[in-house]
Amino acid sequence: MKSVKAAALVVCGTLFFSTASMAQEQEAQSLEQLLDFVKQGQVVESRENRQREQRFVQAKNEQAQLLREAEAERTRQENRSSELEATFEENELLVTAKRAQLRERLGGLAELFGHLTSVSGDLSSNLELSLTSAQYSGRQEFLEELIAKMSGTERLPSIAEIERVWFELQREMIESGKVVTFNTEISRPSGEKVEQRVTRVGLFNVVSEEGKYLQYVPSKDTLEELARQPSGPYMGWAEDLVAATGETGFQKFGIDPTGPTGGSYLAAMINSPTLEERWHQGGQIGYAITAVGIFAFLLAIWRLIVLTSVSSKVNSQLKSDSASTNNPLGRVLKVHEDNPGMDTETLELKLSEAILKETPKLETGLTLLKIIAAVAPLMGLLGTVTGMIITFQAITIFGAGDPKAMAGGISGALITTVLGLLVAIPTVLLHTVVNGRAKRIIHLLNEQSTGIIAEHTEGNLRK
């Protein structure tokens, strides 16, 4: 009871204060007017409370209606799910029966369609890389659609589709042995696309009207000009083939035997460095070896020319009765002519002195050629060791995951050894030839000197 009284007092106090505030806002002029204001406030609050209760009851009724509708929808969906499950089971049984009926009716055709699917798949793989796809487009799309169609069980290939597979097989076989020309769009290494007349040699190669080798890119379905063309006579043969199109007879041409499988041989050949590129791989040491080799060659040629001229003059001196000072033999004979009455020992010494004066002139450059022949392989070995060090440093940093890069580094390192041997071997041969010429002349001088001494001694004895 105390709590009820307390609550009543709180409510009365609240009403009093609200009524007092309302009265204060309306500025009551007397106690009767204040009492009237309090009465009006009670009436207003009572009306608002009834409206609030009506809204609560209405919202409750609406929620109850939504709940009944949701329960009804759930019941309907459960019933529909049961119906669909029953229908699915019936359809599954029907599909199984239809498949069994289809297999029974197909009979031997199932094996035929299996072979047809296999052949179509192999043909599609071959046509993906075939050069004929640059001329005849749309074949792969047809084969892929046919394979997808035969992979299902609800559709069968038509007679026309089967005949087209046979036709494409026959056409690919016939085109592999033909040299044909046709117009198509090609892409240059710069990215420019131009319309040109190209020549296809079977399934092996395609060349442009400019004699440039082309490659077929299946992903883009286009022909692209190789950024790096094969070296040697192949480019000239390609130009001759393009110029001879339409003529009968035979024409020399370099074909890629791996063309039907993607042209791996041509790619490997054009990626192989040329002689100039291999020479540049030798680096600074390779350039030094080349310079030394050129110097040795020029020196040997110069000495050969000089010794050939001297040998010719010596041969002329042998046929002459008077000594001439334009050749070594003449200068040696001149010593005897100038000293006819000299004793034998002195004359022998004079002739030996003359021969010793002529020998360095005849052997000029021989020592240098011998040194170059010995040093060139050592320079090549130095370049190889240096290149191997660089290669192994690269392997240490980047690893040995790419065998091609490692093989390329080792190959470049060995170039200097090859250059050293290429310089040393000809230098040895040239040194042998030049030394033989010089020794022949020196031997002739010694022979003539010995003859002169013998004649001089014989003459003195007769006296």
Tally of alpha and pi helices: 13
The total number of structural domains is: 4
Structural class comes to alpha+beta
How are strands sequenced across the largest beta sheet?
1-2-3-4-5
- Report the strand count: 5
Largest sheet: 5 strands, mixed, barrel
The gross shape turns out to be elongated
Membrane topology: Multi-pass membrane protein
GO biological process, one term: protein import
Keywords: Cell membrane, Coiled coil, Membrane, Protein transport, Signal, Transmembrane, Transmembrane helix, Transport
Pfam families: MotA_ExbB
Helices and strands in order, then pairings?
Layout: H1 2-26, H2 31-106, H3 109-129, H4 139-151, H5 159-175, E1 179-187, E2 193-201, E3 205-207, E4 213-217, E5 222-225, H6 234-243, H7 264-271, H8 275-281, H9 283-319, H10 328-338, H11 344-362, H12 366-398, H13 403-462
Parallel strand pairs: 1-5
Antiparallel strand pairs: 1-2, 2-3, 3-4, 4-5
Helix pairs in contact: 1-2, 3-4, 3-5, 9-12, 9-13, 10-11, 10-13, 11-13, 12-13
Give structural attributes:
single chain, 463 residues, alpha+beta, 4 domains, five-stranded mixed β-barrel, 13 helices, 73% helix, 6% strand, disordered N terminus, signal
